[in-house]
Amino acid sequence: MIVDKIVPAYDFQVLGPLQVRVEGITLALPARHPRMLLAVLLLHNGEVVPEGRLLEQVWGHGVGSTIALRTAVSRLRSWLRDKAAAVAEIEHVGGGYRLRLPDRFLDAARFRAALAADVETAGGDPHQRLAALVGALELWHGSVLDGFPEGVREESAIRALEDEHATCVQRLATLAISVQMPELVLPRARALARARPFDEPLHTRLIELHAACGRPAEALMEYERLRTRLAEELGVAPSADAQNAYLSVLNQDLPSPGGFERPSGMGRGHQVVPRQTPPDIADFTGRAKAVAVLLDHLDGVLDDSTRTTALVAAITGPAGAGKTAVAVHIAHRLMSAYTDGQLYADLRGRAPMPESPIRVLGRFLRALGVGKNAVPDDPAERTALYRSLVSGRRMLVILDDAADEAQVRPLLPGSPACAVLITGRTRLVGVGGARIVEVDRFDTDHAIQLLSAIVGHERVTAEPDAAAELVRLCDRLPLAVRICGARLAARPYWPIAGLVALLRDEHRRLDELSVADLAVRDGLVQSHARLRKDVRQTLTRLARLGRVEFTTGTVAAVCGLDHSAAVDHLGILVEARFVSVVDTGQAGRFHYRVDDLVRLFVLHPS
C-alpha cells in the first residue's frame, strides 16, 4: 500500500499544532473558544461529543455555560461556512455536537487508515510497507494539538493517537532492520523515545536500531538508561523483550561492524568471563579479622533481594601494610561467588601520574569482549557501556591503590549483583555505602609468623631474639618483613643476626629494606611527593624530635604554626600515613608519633 502523496484541497491538521489549510494556504483560526471547540470536535470527528465534555475541555471544570457553548458553536459554524462550507458541518444531536468532515480531509484519519492498511498487508512487500509507513509518519509535525492547554492535551483521544504514533514507529523500525535500512528510522525513533521515557517496546526497537546501525555501544547505553529509569521511577525491571534485545547485542546476534570481538572458538551466546585477579600469596599470614569482615560483607549479603546498588568494600592502611595482598586473597576466596568474572586494575594512586579512569575503562571494556574500534571515546559513554555490560552479572571489580573518590566513581558498576573491592592509603569516605576496613602493621607474633613462612620455622626458632629484633627494626611492616625474609631465603647460610646488624644502622636501614622489585622506600617517596611543601617541612621538624609522642600543641610550637594550621597539617600527615595516632585512653586527648621507617626516610632521604 502506497500512501497518496497528493495534498487534499482541504486539510485539517491535529498531528502537531492545529492548522487548517485550503489549497495549500494556511488559514487564520477563529477566536480562542471556537478554536478549542474545533480541536476537540476534530479529535472525535464523526462522533457525538456530549455538551458537558465540551464545556470541561474548552472552558475548564465548572467555568463554562450552555449559553457560552452555544455561542462558541455558532461562531465556529460561521467560520466553517466561510472557510470550508463544502466539506465540514456541525450537527446538534441529542445532548451534544458532532463534526462531519470526510476522513480524507483530516490528517489523523489518513494516518490511521495507513496504519490499518499496513496490518492488512503484513505479509506483503516490505519495501512497499516501509514507504507507506514513512508517508504516514510524515503527517506528524509534533505532538497532537501541540501548544494547546493541558486540559485538552489530556484527552484520551490524544493519548490514543500518540500510542498509535509509537506503534507506527515500532513497525517501521522492524521493517527497516529487515531490509537493512535502519538509518532511515533511527533519528525519528530516538526523538520519540525521548518524549516517551517509559515506553518499553519503543525503547526496545531503539536498542535494535542502534545495533543494526553498527552502534553496539549506543545500544547498550540505551538499555542501561531504560533499566535505571524503570528501577528508580517504577521499581521494576525491563521487559523480557528489552532484555532479549540487550542480550542480542552482547552476543552479536545483530550486525555490529567494528563492534564486539568474539575470541576464536566462542559460540553465540557465550559471554566473556575475565579472570584478571593476580595470583594469591602462598604464605598469606594473619589478617583474620579483616578477612572475616570483608568476606561477610561481600559474600554474606550477595543474595539480598532488597539491595539496589553494588557492594563496595575498601581496604585502607599505610604503604607496605599488605592491602593488595588482602584484596587478592579475598578475591580468590570469593571466586565461586562471583562466577561471571573478576576485573582488576592497578590505579597507581600514589604515583606522580595516577592511572586515568578512562584508560582503565578501556581495558575493562576490551576484557569484556568489546572490540578496540567499538570502545567509545567519551568518558561518560565508556562508563555507561561498562555498566551495561556488567549489569545483572555477578562480577567482582578490584581497584588497587586508588588515589581518591573521583578516580574510583566512574569504575563503580551500577548492578547490585556486582561487588567492588578498593585498596588505598586514604579512607575513601566519599564512596557511598563502602565498608572500610583498616589494615595496619602486624603485631609481633604475626610478623614473626610471616618471617617463618618465608625462611622456615626452624631457622626462626634457632634465633628467636634476632627474629624479634628484626621485625621490630622493620617496624612490623609486612612489606619490610617480607623483604627481609626474601633476602634471608636467598642466603640460607646467613644468620638472622647478620641482617639485624645491618638494619641497626639507621642511615642504611631503608637501603637494606629492598630486594628485587620490592622496596619500602618506593612507597614512601610516592606519598611524600604528593604532600604540600609546608606539610613536608612540618614532617621534617617532627621527625627530628626522634621516637617520641607529641600533641597538637607540640606541633604548633615546634613548627611555628597557629593551632588551626597545626591541626590541618596533622590531619594531612595522619591521612597520608606518615603519622600515627596514639590512643591515650582519655576522651578528646590524642598523642601522635612519626612512624620509625618514615622518620628514617625523612632524615636520611637517600
Detailed description of the structure:
- 49% of the residues lie in helices and 10% in strands.
- The protein has 4 domains: 154 residues, Orthogonal Bundle (Arc Repressor Mutant, subunit A); 151 residues, Rossmann fold (3-Layer(aba) Sandwich), CATH 3.40.50.300; 77 residues; 73 residues, Winged helix-like DNA-binding domain superfamily/Winged helix DNA-binding domain (Arc Repressor Mutant, subunit A).
- The chain has 606 residues and is of the alpha/beta class.
- It is built from 27 helices and 15 strands.
- The longest helix is centred in the N-terminal third of the chain and has 23 residues.
- A 5-stranded parallel sheet has the order 8-9-10-7-11, sandwiched between helices. A 3-stranded antiparallel sheet has the order 1-2-3, with no helix packed on it. Strands 4-6-5 form a 3-stranded antiparallel sheet.
- The N terminus is likely disordered.
- 39% of the residues are buried.
List the helices and strands and how they pair.
Blueprint: E1 10-13, E2 19-22, E3 25-26, H1 32-43, E4 48-50, H2 51-59, H3 66-84, E5 89-93, E6 96-100, H4 107-120, H5 126-137, H6 150-153, H7 156-178, H8 186-195, H9 200-212, H10 216-234, H11 240-250, H12 288-299, E7 311-316, H13 323-333, E8 342-346, H14 357-367, H15 379-390, E9 396-400, H16 405-408, E10 419-424, E11 435-438, H17 444-455, H18 457-462, H19 464-473, H20 478-490, H21 496-503, H22 509-512, E12 514-515, E13 518-519, H23 520-529, H24 533-543, H25 552-559, H26 563-575, E14 579-583, E15 590-594, H27 596-603
Parallel strand pairs: 7-10, 7-11, 8-9, 9-10
Antiparallel strand pairs: 1-2, 2-3, 4-6, 5-6, 12-13, 14-15
